Amino acid sequence: MSAQGQGGDRAASSERRPLTILFADIAGSTAIAEQLDPEDWTALVGTAFVRLNAVAARYGGTVARLMGDGVLVFFGAPVAHEDDPERAVRCGLDMAREIPALAATQAAGHQIRLQIRVGINTGPVVVGMVGTEIAHEYTAMGDAVNVAARMQAAAPPGGVLITATTYRFVAPLVEVTDAGPLELKGKTEPVQAFEVTGLRPGAVSTRGLGGDVRSAMVGREAQLTRLRDAFAIVRARQGRVASILGEPGIGKSRLLAELRSHVEATDPTARWIEARCLSYGRTLPYHLVLDLVRSVIGVAPTADEPEVRVALEARMRSLFGEGWTDPYAYLGHLLSIQLAPDIRARVAALEIEAVKRYTASVISVVRALAASGPVVLACEDLHWADAASVDVLSQLLPLANELPLFILGTSRLDRESEGWRLISSVRDIFGDALVEVRLDPLTVDETRALVANLLRVESLPMDTRNLILEKAEGNPFFVEEVIRMLIDRGAIERRDDSWVATSAVADIAIPDNLQGLLLARIDRLTPESKRTLRVAAVIGRQFGVTMLERLLEAKTG
Is the bond into 78 cis (omega within 30 degrees of 0)? Predict the structure, then answer.
């Protein structure tokens, strides 16, 4: 993993890894600077940097460099996340929205239009410290960085331009305009680009193969039966709580989706409320509760303020009649919508008690919903939950002892996360009444059935089938990613109504999405564990513990 080069020990600590690179700079900065006093321009750029850096930090990006009136941000180094391309695109969109308002507040009296251009690319780079002991910086080197810079230069003012490589990772989430193949300086071949115009309404995940490439659920029938049985008890007016636990990609979301289909098919009076934690949401207070409220009122996270305001008022009136104003006031305050002066005054008068009122309002809404039928409250990815949301949900749990309420949570086995505190609370409160579902890897036969269901490729060589089984190791998400890679690289193509293997099937490597997922898990390890993993990787896939211990002792010595 290391790379040698200039800089002695610093270069030796470099490593090769996939990275998503974001470049952003102020459009037309030279012309704007001419209109302002140098001190005013410096203050304006400084304020812009503060805002851009804050947006990057919100999405877990690393600000690698400030360059004149621009900024360079890494997603994937020094710490990787499994969804770094998505984080980068969301960050770029927020940056483009954040800057225009600065001109009105920081350059009053000057007719200037402040916008930024954003360019994003994903690809392999070498990252690490470069320079000398006196002057050095953490940076990335490689063609992927140069292409990101060229994307930024080609982006329109206020626009976010991404390469086809990045688009492949975020396509299900974003709306784009095809910018065509661009002739970039230093590149022999044109680079396909897309301008991101926004997020797709209701899109929440980049996982799954999409289209007609889909399989019936495999290997989870017993777990689904347990959840169905629990819902049957809820229909009989007794609450239940369930947790679905397992490693990334093991099938937690799919199991939840199958249960939702069952609930909607068996009881039209049941209300399914679904809230999802964001991978970058641990520092965003109440972000899970906000998603819960949006689900109750039926708006997407991308809905604008007027749409949210109208939906919230309509829902609160239907649930509470004449008493709608209190829950409307506090949930509206939580959602940051514009409130009428009299309602805003009500919130301001009890600012210290606002947090308690948030919780009380959510509890009131759940009670009102449960009065007309079973309610299923599903919270996904609790390992990314924020502390404030966990506090609110902890106070919701006792309602399952008195209402036809089915509370479900999915989580990875991350015992250090805030969400695990909620899992522990559930165990303490409900004990044996808790339905705890743990998902193990699929067996070889189940994995083979999943591959067969996803792609019926009669001409796919047995060696390739075995390679998919070997790499997936019983993880459904890994199966999907390996198959996605085969399709993207032309190793499998659709002909009429069937899939056919091509000659390119011989060239198979681990797909980028898997690398990102694995790097994200490796980056959370302690330095000692990382060192053990590196030594083990040199030995191979199978080895004796004694051999590993001897090598570690030799390396330490």
Answer: yes
Euclidean distance between CA atoms 551 and 557, whole angstroms: 10
Amino acid, single-letter form, for residue 514: L
Give the closest residue to 510 by CA, choosing from 501, 499, 518, 502: 518
Please count the other Cβ atoms lying within 10 Å of the Cβ belonging to residue 39: 8
What is residue 413's DSSP assignment?
S
Kindly give the interhelix angle for 221-235 and 252-266, rounded to the nearest 10 degrees: 40
For 173-204, the pLDDT digits (tens) are 899 999 999 988 878 889 999 999 998 876 66
Measured in degrees and rounded to the nearest 5, phi and psi for residue 199 equal -95, 145
Residue 99 · residue 52 · CB < 8 Å: yes
Task: Report d(CA 277, CA 279) in Å as an integer.
Answer: 7
Contact 479, 447 (CB under 8 A): yes
Kindly compute the dihedral angle of the four CA atoms of residues 118, 122, 125, 131, in this order, to the nearest 10 degrees.
20
Residue partners of 44: CB distance under 8 A and separation at least 6: 36, 102, 106, 107, 114
Cα gap 197→199, rounded to integer Å? 7
Quote the distance between the C-alpha of residue 395 and its chain's center. 26
State both tokens at 436. Answer: 């705890």
Rounded Cα distance between 231 and 448, Å, is 31
Radius of gyration of the chain (CA): 26
Widest distance between CA atoms in the chain: 76
d(CA 323, CA 303): 26
Amino acid (1-letter code) at residue 113: R
- B/e letters for 194-225, b = 16+ CB within 10 Å, e = fewer, are bbbeebeeebbebbebeeebebebbbbeebbe
Beta-bridge partners for 494 = 499
pLDDT digits over 507-525, tens only?
656 555 566 656 666 766 6
pLDDT in tens, 443-484: 888 888 887 777 665 556 677 677 777 777 788 887 777 777
Tokens linked to 175: 């709306």
Q: Which residue has the tokens 């990045």?
A: 166
